[in-house]
Design a protein that fits this description.
The chain is of the alpha+beta class and 258 residues long. The chain has two domains: 3-133, Jelly Rolls (Sandwich); 140-242, Arc Repressor Mutant, subunit A. Helices cover 43% and strands 24% of the residues. It has helices spanning 95-109, 114-133, 140-153, 161-166, 172-183, 187-204, 209-215, 221-232, 236-242; strands at residues 3-20, 25-39, 42-46, 50-54, 60-76, 87-89. Strands 1, 2, 3, 4, 5 and 6 form a six-stranded antiparallel sheet that branches. The two termini are 29 Å apart.
C-alpha cells in the first residue's frame, strides 16, 4: 500500500531542473509548459496534464522548451501500474490536479488532523494514477463525455438528454447505443438516476417535494413524484415523512447515479 510522504510545487518560470535522485517513488504532474524529463537514459516528453512516475534511485532531470510548472509527490510502498517509467495523463476534468491542490494546501497550512487528511488524499491520487493506467475501451471517451455533461447539467431546469446528445461528436443514436452497451443504462436512465439520488438527499434534508424537484431540474413536481414512486415504490412525501423530514442531512449513495 502506498504511503504519502510529501508534495512540492515548482513555481511558474522554471526552464530546467538538475539531475538528482530519490530513495522513494516520485510522481510528477505537469501543470504548465512543455519539455522533457529524462529518467535514466529515457527522455519522456511532457505537456500540461502529463503524469510521470519516477522509480527510486534513478537519476532524472528536466529541460523545458518553454517555462514549466509541476507538482511532485513522494510515496513509499508504491507499486507501479506498468513496467518501465510509467507515463499517464490527467483526466479531462483535471481530477489529479484538484487532489494535488488540496494536498498542497493541507500540508502547507497544517490544520488540525492534516496528516490523516493528506494520507486519504494521497490514496485518492494513487487511485487516479492506477485508473489512468488501465486500458480504456474504445467507447470510453464518448461515454465519459456524455456522463460528464449529464452530471454537470442535471440540475438545470428543462435540461434533457437531447441537449446532452447534441454536444456529442456523433449522431444521437450512436451515442445512445454506445452508452447503453458500456453502462447497461440508457442516457435517460442515467440522468434520472442522478436526479433521484440527489432528490433523496434533498428530501432527507428537509426540502419539500416541489423544492426537491426544482433543484434537480424537473419543473413539474407531479412528474417528479411519478418518477420517484416508480423507482422507490412510495411517493416522495411519504418517503420523507417515513424518514423524519428535516432531522438530518442525507448522505449521497456510493454507487454513481444510484
Amino acid at each position: 500500500m502506498a504511503t504519502f510522504l510529501g508534495i512540492g510545487m515548482i513555481p511558474t518560470g522554471w526552464m530546467s531542473c538538475a539531475s538528482h535522485r530519490h530513495d522513494c517513488w516520485e510522481i510528477v504532474l505537469y501543470l504548465e509548459g512543455r519539455g522533457a524529463i529524462t529518467v535514466g537514459d529515457e527522455a519522456v516528453p511532457f505537456v500540461p496534464g502529463t503524469i510521470v512516475c519516477l522509480p527510486p534511485r534513478i537519476p532524472h532531470f528536466e529541460r523545458g522548451q518553454i517555462p514549466y510548472r509541476n507538482y511532485h509527490l513522494a510515496f513509499s510502498g508504491f507499486a507501479a501500474p506498468v513496467t518501465g517509467v510509467p507515463r499517464l495523463r490527467d483526466d479531462e476534468h483535471g481530477s489529479a490536479r484538484r487532489v494535488c491542490e488540496l494536498l498542497h494546501r493541507e500540508i502547507r497550512l497544517g490544520a488540525d488532523g492534516w496528516r490523516a487528511v493528506c494520507q486519504h488524499l494521497g490514496a485518492a491520487f494513487i487511485d487516479l494514477v492506477e485508473r489512468g493506467a488501465r486500458p480504456a475501451a474504445a467507447s470510453a471517451p464518448l461515454v465519459d463525455r456524455l456522463k460528464a455533461v449529464l452530471y454537470e447539467r442535471h440540475r438545470e431546469p428543462g435540461f434533457g438528454v437531447a441537449a446532452a446528445l447534441a454536444e456529442m461528436p456523433c449522431t444521437p443514436d450512436h451515442a445512445r447505443r454506445t452508452f447503453r452497451a458500456a453502462t447497461g443504462r440508457t442516457p435517460l436512465e442515467f440522468l434520472t438516476d442522478l436526479r433521484l439520488a440527489e432528490a433523496e438527499h434533498l428530501l432527507a434534508s428537509g426540502s419539500t417535494v416541489a423544492e426537491a424537484a426544482a433543484q434537480v431540474g424537473i419543473d413539474d413536481p407531479y412528474y417528479f413524484s411519478r418518477l420517484f414512486a416508480r423507482r422507490f415504490g412510495i411517493s416522495p412525501s411519504r418517503w420523507a415523512a417515513a424518514r423524519g423530514r428535516g432531522r438530518g442531512r442525507g448522505t449521497a449513495r456510493s454507487t454513481p447515479g444510484r
